[in-house]
Amino acid sequence: ERMKFQQEQVARMSRELADARENLSEIRAAQARLKEMLPKAEAGVESGVKHAAELAGIKAEFEHLKDREQRLITREAQLSNDLELERAKLNELNDRLNALELELFPK
Asked: DSSP label at 48?
């Protein structure tokens, strides 16, 4: 029963870590798109073709994404550490189970 619980724990944490990494990748792609848009928007404001509010919106969104990126980096590191701990617990349970089997059924 404990073994099954630990396996589920490792699987859940693996999924959470994969999700965090995927979100991080999406945020970085969005940041790259905004970085490309920024010079064009600045030039448009300077030439009077674009409104300053549009440029401010792009900058605000970029800052928002930077904040989210930092939170996700922290979360990814924490999940990675937690996952390693859970894997170590699972390995320990596995070792203990193997030792018990050897005691009960010696070769």
From this structure: T
